[in-house]
Amino acid sequence: MQVTQSPALFTLDQVDVVLDSVHVLKGISAEIRAGELLGIIGPNGSGKSTLLRTLAGILSPASGSVQLDGREVSTIPRAELARRLAVVPQDCPVAFDYSVLEIVLMGRTPHLGRLGFESKTDLDVALWALQETNLLSLADRRINALSGGERQRVMIARALAQQAQILFLDEPTAHLDINYQVETLCLIKRLNVEQGKTVVVVLHDVNLAAEFCDRLMMMCDGRIYACGEPEEVLTVENMQKVYGAGVTVRRHPTSGRPYVLSLSSRAMASKLKNSGFGPRAKVHVICGGGSGGPVFARLLELGCEVTAGVINIGDADQESAETLGIEYVEESPYSPISDSAEQANLGFIRQADLVVVTDVPFGVGNLPNLHCALSALEIKKSVAIIGSPDKFSDRDFTNGKATIALQMLVEKGAVLLESLDEVCTWVITSAHQQNDIRT
Known about the structure:
This protein is α/β, with parallel strands linked by helices.
């Protein structure tokens, strides 16, 4: 049976973009279909954000054509374009300390009449956008009092309030913990499927992109290197050539979508462990979201035997653990910690001498990692937390539960450390103390 594709909404023909004498986009030709969810991926500096801004008419090409429904984007009046297209930029500083509701109401500007006053309908739409992004309870809060992740969600809510049929998002999951990353992309997918919105999203995480997007566009050095369905784009060969990374590609056990894992290099860890320096301690690291990688490396340099807590497949820390040959507790991609994974985590803790909790953000999904850290103290393990108590709330996406657990850890004897150097000093000192006790 022949499948009918949606018509082209955007058409790019031999687009070049030059910024500050740098040729950023080079001969880009592509189509974006009405109603699709397209993910743009690629390494840093490959032109992802520039392409999105060019599609949105924010940047003008040096040559070539960018058309929306057959019209040059540059010729479409700004107000008309704003009614059709909403953009969530990567960074959006706010000059004045507006309330969250006021920021979201700004998304209604393209729809306001000549007098420019919001109606009850505009307010209702703004409240709907806050509800959809789980921000209704923060409506009266000042924007500058929010964490980076909360501000990011406010900008997404503002774009939703715009009620445009086309939605462009540049790294919408930046600053969000894994729970809100998935929640945000589920919302975007639902708007795409249920309301038929055309969505183009730049994502750094190729596994999130593969899980949620209909098609992927892989950028490399200002050009489109590959474009197609996720399994066509996320191949071992493409990842090697574009990212310079040795990987393996597997299938998600539930969705069947591809996900990428770095190939392990256990020789590195073996070399460190057998260097003659000798393991000073068995250290268990509770981490996630890339916070554990630097800790793993420094502890291995000390000669420690390192294990890691529950990490989702595809998480940056999972890739670091694989690369460094570190044993860890594996959880399915984008999934909360299961009871079995929590028990496996406790098993590693019982075997460890020391436990380190990194400055990982905590959501509902990974909160059991903190419960395991509290259990570690109960069985007389030494525990350290990286980070300052006045920053606990910045990494808490659980309505205060994580902050309470972190504070309880401190009250029960966990050590607070500010830097990796302090972690190393604490590990060495604790290991010597334990050796003295044993001897």
